[in-house]
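note to self — DONT lose this again. spent like an hour looking for the file last time. sequence + predicted structure for the chain T wanted, 141 res
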Amino acid sequence: MVLFVIAFVGVDQYLLFSLSSSMAGENPSAAMPQTQTSASVQVPSGDTGYGPTFSQEGYDQLIAYQNSITLTGEQQTRYQKLIMEIPHECCNGPVGQCECGHAVALRGLVKLLLQKGYTDQQIKDESYKWRQLFFSQNYPM
């Protein structure tokens, strides 16, 4: 029993250290999160058809779009709705409630696709592809 508690406390301290280390100086555009893949997961790659590629450069572009794209009133309304509907595995909530790099990039994606005239469903479908890239271990094919 004592060994279990010590082991649990050790794991808990490690998790807290890992979280605080990663959040302390987090720069969302520093690097796209690394993913672990398996044979049963198909990770998107290459051209997206709307600009950025499924790559580090594409990730950086999406982050930049979050700050550089200005939406119209109707687009802004849809944006607010979409960022609260698109789930985000990293923070266990919608992308609208998280400031990690993944969430910032996904919000940039939503702005870009709204500006390009995509439907809400198309935007959700594209965000799913990027989430597959970020969190491939969560999306077995």
